[in-house]
Amino acid sequence: MIKKNNTAVHLSQEALQERLKERKEKREVSRRERQKAREKRSAERTEVVEMRRGVYDNKNKFEYALKLEKGLTEEIVREISESKDEPEWMLNKRLEALEIFNKTPNPSWGPDLSAVDMNEISTYVRPKAQLESNWQEVPDEIRSTFDQLGIPEAELEMLSGVGAQYDSEVVYHNLKQRFKDMGVVYTDFDTAVREYPDIVQEYYGKCVNPRLHRYAALHYAVWSGGSFVSVPQGIEVDFPLQSYFRLNAPGAGQFEHTLIIIEEGSSAHFIEGCSAPKYNTLNLHAGAVELFIKDDAHLRYSTIENWSRNMYNLNTKRAIVDKGGKIEWVSGSFGSAVSMLYPASILRGEGAQSEFTGITFAGKDQYLDTGAQSMHLAPNTSSSINSKSISKSNGIAIYRGLVEIGPNAHGSKSTVSCESLMLDSESRSDTIPTIRISTDDVDLGHEAKIGRIDETAIFYLMSRGIPEDEAKAMIVRGFAEPIAKELPMEYAVEMNNLISLELKGAIG
Protein backbone atom coordinates (compact mmCIF):
# COMPACT_ATOMS: atom_id res chain seq x y z
CA MET A 1 0.00 0.00 0.00
CA ILE A 2 2.83 2.32 0.85
CA LYS A 3 4.48 1.67 -2.52
CA LYS A 4 1.20 2.15 -4.35
CA ASN A 5 0.49 5.33 -2.43
CA ASN A 6 3.99 6.64 -3.21
CA THR A 7 3.42 5.83 -6.87
CA ALA A 8 0.07 7.58 -6.80
CA VAL A 9 1.66 10.65 -5.26
CA HIS A 10 4.43 10.56 -7.90
CA LEU A 11 1.85 10.35 -10.72
CA SER A 12 -0.07 13.28 -9.25
CA GLN A 13 3.08 15.41 -9.35
CA GLU A 14 3.63 14.50 -13.03
CA ALA A 15 0.04 15.38 -13.83
CA LEU A 16 0.42 18.67 -12.02
CA GLN A 17 3.55 19.52 -14.01
CA GLU A 18 1.72 18.66 -17.23
CA ARG A 19 -1.23 20.86 -16.32
CA LEU A 20 1.13 23.74 -15.48
CA LYS A 21 2.86 23.30 -18.86
CA GLU A 22 -0.51 23.34 -20.67
CA ARG A 23 -1.55 26.51 -18.84
CA LYS A 24 1.76 28.20 -19.72
CA GLU A 25 1.33 27.30 -23.38
CA LYS A 26 -2.26 28.61 -23.38
CA ARG A 27 -1.11 31.87 -21.77
CA GLU A 28 1.61 32.23 -24.42
CA VAL A 29 -0.91 31.64 -27.24
CA SER A 30 -3.29 34.12 -25.65
CA ARG A 31 -0.46 36.66 -25.26
CA ARG A 32 0.49 36.30 -28.94
CA GLU A 33 -3.13 36.73 -30.02
CA ARG A 34 -3.48 39.88 -27.90
CA GLN A 35 -0.22 41.23 -29.31
CA LYS A 36 -1.43 40.60 -32.89
CA ALA A 37 -4.71 42.33 -32.10
CA ARG A 38 -2.87 45.33 -30.65
CA GLU A 39 -0.60 45.52 -33.70
CA LYS A 40 -3.61 45.31 -36.02
CA ARG A 41 -5.42 48.10 -34.15
CA SER A 42 -2.23 50.17 -34.13
CA ALA A 43 -1.76 49.71 -37.87
CA GLU A 44 -5.38 50.65 -38.53
CA ARG A 45 -5.04 53.81 -36.45
CA THR A 46 -1.73 54.68 -38.13
CA GLU A 47 -3.25 54.35 -41.60
CA VAL A 48 -6.02 56.76 -40.65
CA VAL A 49 -3.53 59.29 -39.30
CA GLU A 50 -1.30 59.02 -42.35
CA MET A 51 -4.25 59.58 -44.66
CA ARG A 52 -5.39 62.65 -42.70
CA ARG A 53 -2.50 65.07 -42.24
CA GLY A 54 -4.55 68.15 -41.41
CA VAL A 55 -3.97 71.27 -43.52
CA TYR A 56 -1.13 69.58 -45.42
CA ASP A 57 -3.56 67.18 -47.11
CA ASN A 58 -6.10 69.81 -48.18
CA LYS A 59 -6.58 69.51 -51.93
CA ASN A 60 -7.65 72.27 -54.27
CA LYS A 61 -9.58 71.47 -57.43
CA PHE A 62 -6.95 70.62 -60.03
CA GLU A 63 -7.10 73.53 -62.46
CA TYR A 64 -4.27 74.87 -64.59
CA ALA A 65 -3.45 77.38 -67.29
CA LEU A 66 -1.03 75.01 -69.04
CA LYS A 67 -0.19 71.36 -68.42
CA LEU A 68 2.30 69.62 -70.67
CA GLU A 69 1.66 66.02 -71.63
CA LYS A 70 3.28 63.30 -69.59
CA GLY A 71 6.76 62.17 -70.53
CA LEU A 72 10.20 63.61 -71.13
CA THR A 73 11.21 64.40 -74.70
CA GLU A 74 13.18 67.12 -76.47
CA GLU A 75 9.88 68.63 -77.65
CA ILE A 76 8.62 68.90 -74.06
CA VAL A 77 11.88 70.50 -72.90
CA ARG A 78 11.72 73.01 -75.77
CA GLU A 79 8.10 73.78 -74.91
CA ILE A 80 8.98 74.53 -71.28
CA SER A 81 11.73 76.89 -72.39
CA GLU A 82 9.54 78.57 -75.00
CA SER A 83 6.67 79.08 -72.55
CA LYS A 84 9.11 81.02 -70.34
CA ASP A 85 10.59 83.01 -73.23
CA GLU A 86 14.07 81.97 -72.12
CA PRO A 87 17.39 83.01 -73.69
CA GLU A 88 19.06 80.54 -76.03
CA TRP A 89 21.83 79.72 -73.56
CA MET A 90 19.29 78.37 -71.06
CA LEU A 91 17.61 76.20 -73.69
CA ASN A 92 21.01 74.77 -74.62
CA LYS A 93 21.68 73.97 -70.95
CA ARG A 94 18.33 72.17 -70.77
CA LEU A 95 18.97 70.08 -73.88
CA GLU A 96 22.46 69.16 -72.71
CA ALA A 97 21.03 68.01 -69.36
CA LEU A 98 18.34 65.97 -71.13
CA GLU A 99 21.04 64.09 -73.04
CA ILE A 100 22.89 63.40 -69.77
CA PHE A 101 19.68 62.14 -68.14
CA ASN A 102 18.95 59.72 -71.00
CA LYS A 103 22.48 58.27 -70.79
CA THR A 104 22.66 57.97 -67.00
CA PRO A 105 21.18 54.97 -65.12
CA ASN A 106 19.50 55.05 -61.74
CA PRO A 107 21.86 54.74 -58.76
CA SER A 108 22.93 51.16 -58.09
CA TRP A 109 22.65 51.71 -54.32
CA GLY A 110 19.98 53.00 -51.94
CA PRO A 111 16.22 52.74 -52.45
CA ASP A 112 14.71 51.12 -55.54
CA LEU A 113 13.75 53.91 -57.99
CA SER A 114 12.29 51.68 -60.71
CA ALA A 115 8.79 53.03 -59.92
CA VAL A 116 9.83 56.49 -61.18
CA ASP A 117 8.54 56.35 -64.75
CA MET A 118 8.93 59.67 -66.55
CA ASN A 119 6.33 58.54 -69.09
CA GLU A 120 3.78 58.91 -66.28
CA ILE A 121 4.97 62.28 -64.93
CA SER A 122 3.89 65.76 -66.06
CA THR A 123 7.03 67.87 -65.81
CA TYR A 124 5.32 71.27 -66.12
CA VAL A 125 1.99 72.49 -64.70
CA ARG A 126 1.32 76.22 -64.76
CA PRO A 127 -1.41 77.25 -62.28
CA LYS A 128 -4.14 79.73 -63.09
CA ALA A 129 -2.19 82.54 -61.46
CA GLN A 130 0.40 85.19 -62.25
CA LEU A 131 3.37 86.24 -60.16
CA GLU A 132 2.16 88.83 -57.64
CA SER A 133 3.80 91.02 -55.02
CA ASN A 134 0.44 91.82 -53.39
CA TRP A 135 -0.91 88.86 -51.41
CA GLN A 136 -4.52 89.88 -52.01
CA GLU A 137 -4.02 89.58 -55.78
CA VAL A 138 -3.24 85.86 -55.55
CA PRO A 139 -6.31 83.77 -56.60
CA ASP A 140 -8.56 83.02 -53.65
CA GLU A 141 -8.23 79.23 -53.67
CA ILE A 142 -4.43 79.29 -53.88
CA ARG A 143 -4.19 82.06 -51.30
CA SER A 144 -6.43 80.08 -48.95
CA THR A 145 -4.08 77.08 -49.17
CA PHE A 146 -1.07 79.17 -48.17
CA ASP A 147 -3.11 81.00 -45.52
CA GLN A 148 -3.85 77.67 -43.83
CA LEU A 149 -0.12 76.83 -43.92
CA GLY A 150 0.60 80.10 -42.12
CA ILE A 151 2.65 81.77 -44.87
CA PRO A 152 1.38 85.41 -44.82
CA GLU A 153 1.17 85.56 -41.02
CA ALA A 154 4.78 84.42 -40.77
CA GLU A 155 5.82 87.13 -43.23
CA LEU A 156 4.19 89.86 -41.16
CA GLU A 157 5.62 88.65 -37.87
CA MET A 158 9.16 87.48 -38.44
CA LEU A 159 10.25 87.37 -42.09
CA SER A 160 12.05 89.86 -44.29
CA GLY A 161 10.72 88.32 -47.50
CA VAL A 162 8.50 85.50 -48.75
CA GLY A 163 8.13 83.47 -51.91
CA ALA A 164 5.34 80.97 -52.58
CA GLN A 165 5.42 78.42 -55.41
CA TYR A 166 2.34 76.49 -56.49
CA ASP A 167 3.01 73.53 -58.80
CA SER A 168 5.55 74.68 -61.41
CA GLU A 169 5.42 78.46 -60.95
CA VAL A 170 5.99 81.02 -58.22
CA VAL A 171 2.72 82.88 -57.57
CA TYR A 172 3.90 85.35 -54.93
CA HIS A 173 7.16 87.08 -54.06
CA ASN A 174 7.86 90.04 -51.82
CA LEU A 175 10.82 91.60 -50.04
CA LYS A 176 10.53 94.30 -47.39
CA GLN A 177 11.59 97.72 -48.63
CA ARG A 178 14.41 98.29 -46.16
CA PHE A 179 16.26 95.25 -47.51
CA LYS A 180 15.69 96.38 -51.08
CA ASP A 181 17.25 99.70 -50.09
CA MET A 182 20.32 97.79 -48.84
CA GLY A 183 20.74 96.19 -52.27
CA VAL A 184 19.45 92.74 -51.29
CA VAL A 185 17.89 90.86 -54.20
CA TYR A 186 15.26 88.21 -53.47
CA THR A 187 13.09 87.08 -56.35
CA ASP A 188 11.93 83.98 -58.17
CA PHE A 189 14.49 82.21 -60.31
CA ASP A 190 12.64 82.77 -63.61
CA THR A 191 12.78 86.51 -63.01
CA ALA A 192 16.47 86.25 -62.12
CA VAL A 193 17.23 84.58 -65.48
CA ARG A 194 15.65 87.55 -67.26
CA GLU A 195 16.81 90.44 -65.05
CA TYR A 196 20.20 89.22 -63.74
CA PRO A 197 21.50 87.07 -66.63
CA ASP A 198 25.20 87.77 -66.02
CA ILE A 199 25.04 86.73 -62.36
CA VAL A 200 22.93 83.65 -63.10
CA GLN A 201 25.26 82.48 -65.90
CA GLU A 202 28.28 82.93 -63.62
CA TYR A 203 26.91 80.64 -60.89
CA TYR A 204 24.23 78.43 -62.48
CA GLY A 205 25.24 74.75 -62.46
CA LYS A 206 28.62 75.44 -60.84
CA CYS A 207 27.72 73.99 -57.44
CA VAL A 208 25.20 71.29 -58.45
CA ASN A 209 26.43 69.87 -61.74
CA PRO A 210 23.94 68.05 -64.03
CA ARG A 211 26.47 65.21 -64.26
CA LEU A 212 26.32 64.65 -60.49
CA HIS A 213 23.58 62.02 -60.81
CA ARG A 214 20.60 61.15 -62.99
CA TYR A 215 18.05 63.30 -61.16
CA ALA A 216 20.33 66.32 -61.08
CA ALA A 217 20.36 66.04 -64.89
CA LEU A 218 16.55 65.70 -64.90
CA HIS A 219 16.31 68.84 -62.81
CA TYR A 220 18.40 70.92 -65.21
CA ALA A 221 16.35 69.69 -68.16
CA VAL A 222 12.93 70.64 -66.77
CA TRP A 223 13.50 73.10 -63.87
CA SER A 224 10.81 75.68 -63.18
CA GLY A 225 10.35 78.22 -60.39
CA GLY A 226 12.51 78.48 -57.32
CA SER A 227 14.32 81.35 -55.59
CA PHE A 228 17.22 83.70 -56.24
CA VAL A 229 18.97 85.56 -53.41
CA SER A 230 21.93 87.93 -53.61
CA VAL A 231 23.16 89.65 -50.45
CA PRO A 232 25.75 92.42 -51.09
CA GLN A 233 29.05 92.67 -49.26
CA GLY A 234 28.83 93.55 -45.56
CA ILE A 235 25.01 93.32 -45.28
CA GLU A 236 23.28 91.47 -42.43
CA VAL A 237 19.76 90.28 -43.30
CA ASP A 238 18.61 90.06 -39.70
CA PHE A 239 15.20 88.48 -40.40
CA PRO A 240 14.81 85.21 -42.33
CA LEU A 241 13.79 84.89 -45.97
CA GLN A 242 11.33 82.10 -46.70
CA SER A 243 10.23 80.19 -49.78
CA TYR A 244 7.40 77.66 -49.61
CA PHE A 245 6.83 75.04 -52.30
CA ARG A 246 3.41 73.45 -52.69
CA LEU A 247 2.70 70.70 -55.22
CA ASN A 248 -1.06 70.36 -55.76
CA ALA A 249 -1.18 68.53 -59.11
CA PRO A 250 -1.45 64.72 -59.07
CA GLY A 251 1.01 62.73 -61.19
CA ALA A 252 3.31 65.73 -61.59
CA GLY A 253 6.82 66.78 -60.69
CA GLN A 254 8.21 69.88 -59.02
CA PHE A 255 11.70 71.00 -60.07
CA GLU A 256 12.41 74.38 -58.46
CA HIS A 257 15.92 75.87 -58.61
CA THR A 258 17.32 77.84 -55.67
CA LEU A 259 20.47 79.96 -56.10
CA ILE A 260 21.79 81.97 -53.13
CA ILE A 261 24.92 84.13 -53.13
CA ILE A 262 26.12 85.59 -49.82
CA GLU A 263 28.90 88.07 -50.52
CA GLU A 264 31.96 88.76 -48.35
CA GLY A 265 31.22 89.56 -44.71
CA SER A 266 27.44 89.22 -45.12
CA SER A 267 24.91 86.95 -43.41
CA ALA A 268 21.39 85.63 -43.97
CA HIS A 269 18.95 82.93 -42.91
CA PHE A 270 16.89 81.18 -45.58
CA ILE A 271 13.92 78.95 -44.69
CA GLU A 272 12.45 76.39 -47.08
CA GLY A 273 9.11 74.67 -46.55
CA CYS A 274 7.63 71.91 -48.73
CA SER A 275 4.35 70.00 -48.70
CA ALA A 276 1.83 68.23 -50.93
CA PRO A 277 -1.53 66.48 -50.48
CA LYS A 278 -1.76 62.72 -50.89
CA TYR A 279 -2.84 61.11 -54.16
CA ASN A 280 -3.00 57.53 -55.37
CA THR A 281 -0.39 58.24 -58.03
CA LEU A 282 3.33 58.87 -57.95
CA ASN A 283 4.57 62.46 -57.63
CA LEU A 284 8.20 63.48 -58.02
CA HIS A 285 10.33 66.20 -56.45
CA ALA A 286 13.79 66.83 -57.93
CA GLY A 287 14.79 70.36 -57.01
CA ALA A 288 18.30 71.76 -56.77
CA VAL A 289 19.83 74.16 -54.25
CA GLU A 290 23.10 75.98 -55.02
CA LEU A 291 24.63 78.04 -52.22
CA PHE A 292 27.71 80.25 -52.48
CA ILE A 293 29.12 81.61 -49.21
CA LYS A 294 32.00 84.02 -49.78
CA ASP A 295 34.87 85.02 -47.46
CA ASP A 296 33.77 85.52 -43.82
CA ALA A 297 30.09 85.22 -44.83
CA HIS A 298 27.45 83.16 -43.02
CA LEU A 299 24.29 81.40 -44.21
CA ARG A 300 21.83 79.28 -42.27
CA TYR A 301 19.59 77.13 -44.48
CA SER A 302 16.60 75.59 -42.66
CA THR A 303 14.20 73.08 -44.20
CA ILE A 304 11.09 71.19 -43.15
CA GLU A 305 10.02 68.76 -45.89
CA ASN A 306 6.55 67.38 -45.33
CA TRP A 307 5.72 65.59 -48.56
CA SER A 308 2.88 63.07 -48.85
CA ARG A 309 3.31 59.30 -48.98
CA ASN A 310 3.07 59.17 -52.80
CA MET A 311 6.10 61.45 -53.29
CA TYR A 312 9.58 60.42 -54.42
CA ASN A 313 11.86 63.14 -53.03
CA LEU A 314 15.14 63.16 -54.99
CA ASN A 315 16.42 66.60 -54.09
CA THR A 316 20.01 67.87 -54.39
CA LYS A 317 21.56 70.53 -52.14
CA ARG A 318 25.15 71.81 -52.16
CA ALA A 319 27.11 74.72 -50.74
CA ILE A 320 30.54 76.10 -51.66
CA VAL A 321 32.16 77.91 -48.73
CA ASP A 322 35.13 80.25 -49.11
CA LYS A 323 37.77 81.46 -46.63
CA GLY A 324 36.36 81.97 -43.13
CA GLY A 325 32.79 81.41 -44.33
CA LYS A 326 30.19 79.22 -42.64
CA ILE A 327 27.16 77.20 -43.77
CA GLU A 328 24.62 75.82 -41.30
CA TRP A 329 22.12 73.21 -42.46
CA VAL A 330 19.05 72.51 -40.31
CA SER A 331 16.86 69.81 -41.83
CA GLY A 332 13.69 67.92 -40.95
CA SER A 333 12.52 65.20 -43.35
CA PHE A 334 8.97 63.81 -43.00
CA GLY A 335 6.51 62.24 -45.40
CA SER A 336 7.41 60.93 -48.88
CA ALA A 337 7.49 57.29 -49.92
CA VAL A 338 11.18 57.53 -50.76
CA SER A 339 13.78 60.21 -50.04
CA MET A 340 17.38 60.47 -51.19
CA LEU A 341 18.87 63.69 -49.84
CA TYR A 342 22.43 64.46 -48.72
CA PRO A 343 23.20 68.19 -48.32
CA ALA A 344 26.86 68.72 -49.18
CA SER A 345 29.32 71.34 -47.94
CA ILE A 346 32.38 71.98 -50.11
CA LEU A 347 34.87 73.80 -47.87
CA ARG A 348 37.26 75.31 -50.41
CA GLY A 349 38.59 78.28 -48.41
CA GLU A 350 40.94 78.18 -45.43
CA GLY A 351 39.03 78.16 -42.14
CA ALA A 352 35.67 77.45 -43.82
CA GLN A 353 33.08 75.78 -41.58
CA SER A 354 29.95 73.66 -41.97
CA GLU A 355 27.39 72.38 -39.49
CA PHE A 356 24.60 69.94 -40.30
CA THR A 357 21.77 69.21 -37.87
CA GLY A 358 19.00 66.96 -39.16
CA ILE A 359 16.19 64.60 -38.22
CA THR A 360 14.33 61.98 -40.25
CA PHE A 361 11.10 60.19 -39.29
CA ALA A 362 10.32 57.05 -41.32
CA GLY A 363 6.82 55.68 -40.80
CA LYS A 364 4.84 52.91 -42.45
CA ASP A 365 6.14 51.95 -45.92
CA GLN A 366 8.66 54.81 -46.02
CA TYR A 367 12.27 54.46 -47.14
CA LEU A 368 14.18 57.60 -46.17
CA ASP A 369 17.82 57.43 -47.22
CA THR A 370 19.33 60.71 -46.01
CA GLY A 371 22.49 62.16 -44.55
CA ALA A 372 25.12 64.83 -45.17
CA GLN A 373 28.47 65.34 -46.88
CA SER A 374 31.48 67.44 -45.86
CA MET A 375 34.38 67.90 -48.28
CA HIS A 376 37.46 69.60 -46.84
CA LEU A 377 39.62 71.06 -49.60
CA ALA A 378 41.57 73.74 -47.67
CA PRO A 379 43.60 73.96 -44.45
CA ASN A 380 42.04 74.40 -41.00
CA THR A 381 38.49 73.75 -42.16
CA SER A 382 35.95 72.22 -39.78
CA SER A 383 32.67 70.37 -40.05
CA SER A 384 30.13 68.73 -37.78
CA ILE A 385 27.25 66.41 -38.62
CA ASN A 386 24.55 65.68 -36.03
CA SER A 387 21.95 63.32 -37.48
CA LYS A 388 18.97 61.75 -35.74
CA SER A 389 16.40 59.31 -37.11
CA ILE A 390 13.20 57.71 -35.84
CA SER A 391 11.56 54.69 -37.47
CA LYS A 392 8.37 52.77 -36.85
CA SER A 393 5.83 50.40 -38.47
CA ASN A 394 8.33 48.87 -40.98
CA GLY A 395 9.76 52.30 -41.88
CA ILE A 396 13.39 52.38 -43.02
CA ALA A 397 15.67 55.25 -41.95
CA ILE A 398 19.18 55.21 -43.37
CA TYR A 399 22.02 57.61 -42.59
CA ARG A 400 24.40 57.78 -45.56
CA GLY A 401 27.22 60.26 -45.08
CA LEU A 402 30.57 61.32 -46.49
CA VAL A 403 33.50 63.09 -44.87
CA GLU A 404 36.36 63.71 -47.29
CA ILE A 405 39.56 65.45 -46.24
CA GLY A 406 41.82 66.33 -49.16
CA PRO A 407 45.63 66.40 -49.26
CA ASN A 408 45.70 70.19 -48.74
CA ALA A 409 43.28 70.19 -45.79
CA HIS A 410 45.86 69.86 -43.01
CA GLY A 411 44.73 70.99 -39.57
CA SER A 412 41.09 70.20 -40.37
CA LYS A 413 38.55 68.84 -37.90
CA SER A 414 35.33 66.87 -38.35
CA THR A 415 32.87 65.19 -35.98
CA VAL A 416 29.96 62.95 -36.93
CA SER A 417 27.22 61.81 -34.54
CA CYS A 418 24.36 59.55 -35.67
CA GLU A 419 21.56 58.48 -33.34
CA SER A 420 18.68 56.23 -34.33
CA LEU A 421 15.56 55.39 -32.34
CA MET A 422 13.41 52.42 -33.42
CA LEU A 423 9.91 52.27 -31.98
CA ASP A 424 9.15 48.63 -32.80
CA SER A 425 10.71 45.40 -34.07
CA GLU A 426 9.44 45.95 -37.64
CA SER A 427 11.38 49.13 -38.36
CA ARG A 428 14.94 49.38 -39.63
CA SER A 429 17.77 51.83 -39.16
CA ASP A 430 21.28 51.70 -40.64
CA THR A 431 24.33 53.96 -40.57
CA ILE A 432 26.49 53.93 -43.71
CA PRO A 433 29.41 56.34 -43.29
CA THR A 434 32.16 56.91 -45.84
CA ILE A 435 35.38 58.55 -44.62
CA ARG A 436 38.26 59.43 -46.92
CA ILE A 437 41.40 61.03 -45.48
CA SER A 438 44.34 62.13 -47.63
CA THR A 439 46.48 63.90 -45.02
CA ASP A 440 47.82 62.94 -41.59
CA ASP A 441 47.21 66.23 -39.75
CA VAL A 442 43.47 65.89 -39.02
CA ASP A 443 41.14 65.45 -36.06
CA LEU A 444 38.15 63.27 -36.93
CA GLY A 445 35.59 61.40 -34.86
CA HIS A 446 32.54 59.30 -35.76
CA GLU A 447 29.91 57.99 -33.34
CA ALA A 448 26.77 56.01 -34.09
CA LYS A 449 24.08 54.74 -31.68
CA ILE A 450 21.00 52.70 -32.48
CA GLY A 451 18.45 51.69 -29.85
CA ARG A 452 14.90 51.57 -28.61
CA ILE A 453 12.95 53.57 -26.04
CA ASP A 454 14.33 53.11 -22.53
CA GLU A 455 11.78 51.05 -20.57
CA THR A 456 13.17 52.43 -17.30
CA ALA A 457 12.39 55.98 -18.41
CA ILE A 458 8.87 54.93 -19.40
CA PHE A 459 8.35 53.30 -15.99
CA TYR A 460 9.60 56.43 -14.22
CA LEU A 461 7.19 58.71 -16.13
CA MET A 462 4.27 56.32 -15.60
CA SER A 463 5.04 56.23 -11.88
CA ARG A 464 4.43 59.99 -11.94
CA GLY A 465 0.93 59.49 -13.35
CA ILE A 466 1.69 59.95 -17.06
CA PRO A 467 -0.10 57.46 -19.38
CA GLU A 468 2.16 55.03 -21.22
CA ASP A 469 1.49 56.40 -24.74
CA GLU A 470 2.18 59.97 -23.65
CA ALA A 471 5.31 58.87 -21.77
CA LYS A 472 6.69 57.32 -24.96
CA ALA A 473 5.72 60.37 -27.00
CA MET A 474 7.51 62.64 -24.50
CA ILE A 475 10.68 60.60 -24.87
CA VAL A 476 10.52 60.78 -28.67
CA ARG A 477 9.96 64.55 -28.62
CA GLY A 478 12.89 64.87 -26.22
CA PHE A 479 15.02 62.85 -28.64
CA ALA A 480 14.11 65.35 -31.40
CA GLU A 481 14.47 68.47 -29.22
CA PRO A 482 18.08 69.33 -30.24
CA ILE A 483 16.83 69.69 -33.82
CA ALA A 484 13.68 71.62 -32.90
CA LYS A 485 15.60 74.25 -30.94
CA GLU A 486 17.64 75.08 -34.06
CA LEU A 487 14.51 75.91 -36.06
CA PRO A 488 12.51 79.16 -36.06
CA MET A 489 9.59 78.96 -33.63
CA GLU A 490 6.90 78.38 -36.28
CA TYR A 491 8.86 75.56 -37.87
CA ALA A 492 9.73 73.99 -34.51
CA VAL A 493 6.01 73.90 -33.73
CA GLU A 494 5.32 72.38 -37.16
CA MET A 495 7.97 69.71 -36.61
CA ASN A 496 6.54 68.77 -33.20
CA ASN A 497 3.05 68.59 -34.73
CA LEU A 498 4.35 66.29 -37.46
CA ILE A 499 6.00 64.05 -34.87
CA SER A 500 2.74 63.91 -32.91
CA LEU A 501 0.86 62.93 -36.08
CA GLU A 502 3.36 60.16 -36.77
CA LEU A 503 3.24 58.87 -33.20
CA LYS A 504 -0.52 58.96 -32.67
CA GLY A 505 -1.79 55.43 -32.41
CA ALA A 506 1.54 54.01 -33.49
CA ILE A 507 3.37 53.26 -30.26
CA GLY A 508 2.14 51.29 -27.36
Write a brief structural summary:
The chain is of the alpha/beta class.
Topology of this protein?
Blueprint: H1 2-51, E1 66-67, H2 74-83, H3 88-103, E2 125-126, H4 140-148, H5 151-158, E3 161-166, E4 169-175, H6 177-181, E5 185-188, H7 189-195, H8 197-203, H9 214-222, E6 226-231, E7 241-246, E8 253-254, E9 257-262, E10 267-275, E11 283-285, E12 288-293, E13 298-306, E14 311-313, E15 316-321, E16 326-334, E17 338-341, E18 344-347, E19 353-362, E20 367-370, E21 373-376, E22 382-391, E23 396-405, E24 412-422, E25 428-437, E26 442-452, H10 455-463, H11 468-484, H12 489-503
Parallel strand pairs: 3-7, 6-9, 7-10, 8-11, 9-12, 10-13, 11-14, 12-15, 13-16, 14-17, 15-18, 16-19, 17-20, 18-21, 19-22, 20-23, 21-23, 22-24, 23-25, 24-26
Antiparallel strand pairs: 1-2, 3-4, 5-6
Helix pairs in contact: 2-3, 3-9, 10-11, 11-12
Portion of residues in helices?
A: 25-40%
Poorly predicted parts: 1-11, 38-52
| Estimated radius of gyration | 26 Å
Q: Note the main sheet.
A: 14 strands, mixed
What is the SS-derived class?
Answer: alpha/beta
Count of helical stretches: 12
**Range of strand content:** 25-35%
Global mean pLDDT = 86
The N- and C-terminal alpha carbons lie at a distance of 58 Å
- Count of individual beta strands: 26
What is the overall shape? globular
